[in-house]
């Protein structure tokens, strides 16, 4: 009897000691119990693939997961440091950061996630070469086959900003393909025939292609697969010279003597940090089997774009509709767990019979109806583009050729030293402070010393024109609103919407209607910048002393004389404050405007953001700050009444 308690005690001790180990083994089955952090990149195919991988890891392998969004360069740097564990879509040969990390053994690239690789190249719409009888479009370039034919067709793809050249729509600034295309244009000698136009963002590039295609217009652009537009539209690829690996490497890196080559058919893979791959060989085995068919992935991306579904919702739909695809990637046990989580326990269950628990929860337990205006707005916008796109483009061409380009060319034609003297003279006239005049001119000289003079002038020209147009529109509207209570009541909510609506919301509609470049940037800037001028003009006129107006009426002034000689001069400080605010808000839009192809300082800031080039972004940002300070101080000085401005001659008399 004495041995039994000792045996029970020993068994209890063993059980107590092994329980933590067992629990630890269970929780550590995936990544040692630590959350798996996946990068969520900002294009559709990567977001979709990332969420598919996350759901399979969570349901099939019991992993704790976390999605971390970010720009490409930042995400890749985090992967190298093991701050992130997985990037679900990496293009081979595209990222110097990843290539260097692979050589150092810090990153492993696994699998081939797209059958036959990702196709990329230069494209035109199919109807440009072959026509489209259903839409009544005749082939405008039937002999366009290779890049050697492009000089003959430059007038077909004319650049609105430089009609003597064609326009080639390149990748956004900072993307690897932007440098690749630029070097190919240089190598083929096409820079004299085509403007190398950067779209600003991938969404802007897609919008420009869609707008041209829906209107049946010619357009020359770079594009890639997988992408939704590849499933939506029919494109004709421009032939390049035969692929040569050595030449392609020189084109991508820019190192060595450039030689011609076709685009690499890039391999898409999963990139994992080396420590994570070492800890989780079973997950690496899953990544090696992960693969999509191009047509299927293109359709998923297209539906994701058109229905405005996010990556998570689209991944859930894919898993329910295509179990035959993802079950081939997973071991039997993991596949069964995913099927159970999705409500598809039996492999023979059809996708239609699988219950959509998220949809049921929303429909049954939610208190909100399922309303959406997105589809209606999209249909109306596309109808407007097809019906009136030509009219909007005529307006765009008029604004560009008659207003924007003449002002920009005039300012670029002025020698920098003369421009600096004019700025100094203007600032002295406004402030009557010689030190301030010299300081402002010196600051602008510093911008030129940083190699940003031309971009500064481009930005200043856009700000100047948008401010002038805002004044032409805003001051008369403010004058009328000051006299009409009904108009003020109508304008107030409209101006509230114009000031509070995020500029990104109306960038794409403006882009679809007016195309890429300076004109949509001008309209977007005016929408954002004109409300304070209207408000302050109305406020200034309504605050004019009624006794002064009665006295003027007693002297028999007309309504025009009352406006021009009494109320406007008295309201001038308020109106000038409105002009100052409008100018500052127009300048604040330059970075946003660069996202739809407007060149200038904002382009460098955007490129710095997309490539983590801190120096480039900081230089351009500092130049914008300098320009803002100079404009602000001069307009503020002119806004003060003359009696409040310092006068050196009066100071001497004292």
TrEMBL record:
One record GO biological process: glycine betaine transport
Signal sequence, start to end: 1-23
GO molecular function: amine transmembrane transporter activity; carnitine transmembrane transporter activity
Keyword Transmembrane helix: yes
Top-level taxon of origin: Bacteria
Compartments it resides in: Cell membrane
Membrane topology of the entry: Multi-pass membrane protein
Keywords on record: Cell membrane, Membrane, Signal, Transmembrane, Transmembrane helix, Transport
Cited Pfam families: BPD_transp_1, OpuAC
Transmembrane segments: 410-428, 435-453, 459-482, 494-515
InterPro entries, alphabetized: ABC_Gly_betaine_transp_sub-bd (IPR007210), MetI-like (IPR000515), MetI-like_sf (IPR035906)
Any one GO CC term of the record: ATP-binding cassette (ABC) transporter complex
Domain ABC transmembrane type-1: 456-635
Similarity annotation: In the C-terminal section; belongs to the OsmX family. In the N-terminal section; belongs to the binding-protein-dependent transport system permease family.
Name recorded for this polypeptide: Glycine betaine/proline transport system substrate-binding protein
Organism in which the protein naturally occurs: Paracandidimonas soli
Lineage, opening ranks: Bacteria, Pseudomonadati, Pseudomonadota, Betaproteobacteria, Burkholderiales
């Amino acid at each position: 009897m004495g041995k039994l308690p000792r045996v029970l005690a020993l068994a209890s001790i063993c059980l107590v000691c092994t329980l933590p180990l067992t629990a630890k083994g269970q929780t550590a089955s995936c990544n040692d119990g630590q959350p798996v952090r996946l990068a969520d990149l900002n294009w559709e195919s990567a977001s979709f693939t990332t969420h598919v991988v996350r759901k399979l890891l969570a349901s099939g392998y019991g992993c704790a997961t976390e999605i971390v969004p970010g720009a490409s360069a930042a995400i890749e740097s985090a992967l190298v440091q093991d701050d992130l564990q997985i990037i679900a879509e990496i293009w081979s040969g595209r990222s110097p950061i990843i290539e260097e990390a692979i050589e150092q053994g810090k990153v492993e690239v696994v699998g081939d996630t797209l059958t036959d690789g990702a196709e990329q190249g230069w494209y035109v719409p199919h109807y440009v070469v072959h026509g489209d009888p259903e839409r009544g479009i005749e082939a405008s370039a039937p002999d366009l086959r290779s890049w050697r034919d492009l000089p003959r067709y430059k007038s077909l793809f004319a650049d609105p900003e430089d009609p003597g050249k064609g326009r080639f729509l390149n990748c956004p600034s900072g993307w690897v393909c932007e440098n690749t295309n630029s070097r190919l244009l240089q190598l083929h000698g096409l820079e004299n025939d085509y403007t190398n136009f950067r779209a600003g963002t991938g969404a802007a590039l897609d919008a420009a292609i869609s707008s041209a295609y829906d209107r049946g217009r010619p357009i020359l652009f770079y594009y890639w697969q997988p992408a939704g537009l590849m499933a939506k539209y029919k494109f004709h690829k421009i032939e390049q010279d035969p692929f040569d690996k050595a030449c392609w490497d020189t084109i991508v890196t820019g190192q060595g003597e450039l030689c011609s080559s076709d685009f690499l058919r890039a391999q898409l893979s999963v990139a994992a940090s080396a420590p994570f791959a070492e800890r989780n060989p079973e997950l690496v085995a899953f990544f090696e089997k992960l693969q999509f068919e191009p047509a299927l992935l293109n359709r998923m991306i297209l539906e994701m774009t058109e229905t405005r579904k996010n990556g998570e919702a689209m991944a859930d739909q894919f898993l329910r509709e295509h179990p035959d695809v993802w079950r081939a990637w997973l071991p039997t046990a993991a596949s069964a767990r995913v099927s159970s989580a999705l409500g598809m326990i039996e492999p023979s269950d059809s996708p239609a019979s699988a219950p959509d628990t998220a949809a049921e929860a929303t429909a049954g337990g939610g208190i909100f109806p399922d309303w959406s205006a997105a589809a209606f707005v999209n249909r109306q916008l596309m109808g407007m583009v097809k019906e009136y796109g030509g009219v909007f483009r005529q307006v765009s061409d008029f604004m560009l050729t008659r207003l924007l380009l003449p002002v920009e060319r005039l300012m670029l034609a002025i020698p920098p030293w003369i421009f600096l003297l004019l700025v100094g003279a203007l600032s002295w006239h406004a402030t009557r402070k010689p030190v301030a005049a010299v300081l402002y001119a010196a600051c602008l000289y510093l911008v030129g010393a940083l190699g940003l003079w031309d971009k500064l002038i481009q930005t200043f020209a856009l700000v100047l024109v948008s401010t002038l147009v805002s004044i032409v529109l805003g001051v008369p509207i403010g004058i009328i609103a000051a006299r009409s209570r009904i108009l003020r009541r109508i304008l107030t909510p409209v101006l509230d919407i114009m000031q509070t609506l995020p500029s990104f919301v109306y960038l794409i509609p403006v882009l679809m209607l007016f195309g890429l470049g300076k004109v949509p940037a001008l309209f977007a800037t005016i929408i954002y910048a004109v409300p304070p001028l209207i408000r302050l003009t109305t406020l200034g006129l309504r605050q004019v002393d009624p006794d002064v107006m009665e006295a003027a009426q007693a002297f028999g002034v007309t309504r025009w004389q009352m406006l021009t000689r009494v109320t406007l001069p008295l309201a001038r400080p308020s109106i000038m404050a409105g002009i100052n605010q409008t100018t500052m808000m127009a300048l604040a839009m330059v970075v946003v405007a660069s996202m739809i192809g407007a060149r200038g300082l904002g382009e460098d800031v955007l490129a710095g953001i997309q490539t983590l080039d801190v120096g480039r972004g900081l230089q351009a940002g500092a130049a914008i700050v300098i320009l803002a300070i100079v404009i602000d101080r001069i307009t503020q000085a002119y806004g003060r009444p003359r009696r409040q401005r310092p006068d050196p001659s009066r100071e001497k008399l004292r």
